[in-house]
Specification:
The chain is an all-alpha fold. It is built from 18 helices and no strands. The N and C termini lie far apart (111 Å).
């Protein structure tokens, strides 16, 4: 037995040190060798940063100043600037007020309020939820997650979807902004309220009749997180809504000003000459621009040459169907739902705008 242990492998030397592999050939460059010889670290390659780009842009603007001044003095550019500033300045106060109120509702009003107020019967819950949009306003971005939270808490999908469509469309801030944008057409405020509420309620009833539960992605029941307080949630919601809506306001103002300057009058006359074609044109424009509902009335009022019914369609379609809402609905409820619901809402909103415009405008 002892002989077996005596024949075991000899122990490794304790002082043995690991030898690093030799560097590959050509690893040492001449620059490194030169810097080592002079006792300084190798120089880093210079890369332009934001300051350099800013200085370059400033120099370009400085040298191009005479050309820019000549171009800005033209009537077309002055008209463009006037339209852009007018839309932005008029819409900004309503945008701030709307995002403040929307953030406050998001942070301080629990979704359980809806489950206590709405009737049990789905046919009655739909118009009540649609009318609640006038009391509890919200922006388009917040309406989608709020509707998802209502469904997760047991609210009927038809009622939640009616609130999703009406909340950003018929609240007092939006209607006040519409009255300011159309001071000589007070009937436009009533027309927008009737057409938007009618679209929301009709879409809720259509979903209650023809909608299928499997078309909506299963909603997880929300649970509260104690990480953020109510005021912190208010600040985050306000920051998100204002920056998001403000960006789309700038895009909408730029587009409206550009259309007023660049599109020839005979083209506008040709488009607006056909009532149906004019309504469709501004409805598609509302989908693409995705202007916040607190500001879209000022954009619509600036679209000269179009009929009041076409402008009404722009204001009814925009808060219910646009590119950002379609993306939000796809992520929250699924792509199949977004494709069906957005398409149906677009058609119903156009028909409602045309009927209400013929009736009131």
């Amino acid at each position: 037995m002892n002989s077996m242990f005596e024949k075991s492998a000899p122990p490794r030397p304790a002082a043995a040190a690991r030898v690093a592999p030799p560097p590959p050939r050509g690893a040492e460059s001449s620059a490194t060798a030169g810097s080592a010889a002079h006792g300084r670290p190798p120089a880093e390659r210079w890369r332009p940063g934001q300051l350099e780009f800013f200085v370059l842009a400033l120099l370009v603007l400085l040298f191009a100043q005479p050309w820019i001044v000549d171009r800005l003095g033209t009537p077309a550019v002055q008209t463009w600037a006037t339209v852009f500033v007018a839309i932005s300045v008029q819409a900004l106060p309503f945008l701030v007020l709307g995002t403040l109120l929307s953030a406050a509702i998001t942070a301080f009003v629990p979704p359980s309020v809806f489950t206590k107020v709405l009737p049990k019967r789905q046919s009655l819950a739909v118009p009540v939820a649609g009318a609640a949009g006038a009391i509890l306003p919200g922006c388009e971005c917040a309406s989608v997650p709020v509707a998802g939270g209502l469904m997760a808490r047991g609210v009927a999908p038809a009622a939640a979807l009616a609130f999703l469509l009406s909340s950003p469309a018929i609240n007092p801030i939006v209607l006040t902004a519409t009255a300011v944008a159309f001071p000589k057409q007070p009937e436009m405020v009533l027309a927008r309220f009737v057409a938007s509420l009618g679209t929301a309620v009709l879409m809720g009833w259509l979903w209650a009749r023809f909608g299928r539960p499997e078309w909506i992605k299963p909603m997880r029941r929300p649970h509260d997180h104690g990480g953020n307080g109510k005021w912190e949630n208010f600040r985050l919601a306000l920051q998100h809504d204002f920056l998001h809506a403000g960006g789309f306001l700038v895009i909408g103002a730029i587009t409206a000003a550009t259309l007023n300057v660049t599109v020839p009058k005979h083209v506008i006359d040709a488009v607006s000459g056909s009532p149906w074609f004019a309504v469709l044109a501004l409805a598609f424009l509302a989908v693409v621009l995705a202007v916040c509902s607190e500001a879209d009335a000022f954009v619509a009022a600036s679209l000269l040459g179009f009929s009041p019914t076409a402008k009404l369609a722009f204001m009814v379609v925009g808060p219910m169907v646009d590119v950002k809402l379609i993306a939000l609905q796809s992520g929250t409820f699924g792509r199949g739902f977004a494709a069906r619901f957005s398409s149906a809402t677009f058609v119903v909103a156009i028909v409602a705008s045309y009927v209400v415009g013929w009736w009131l405008l």
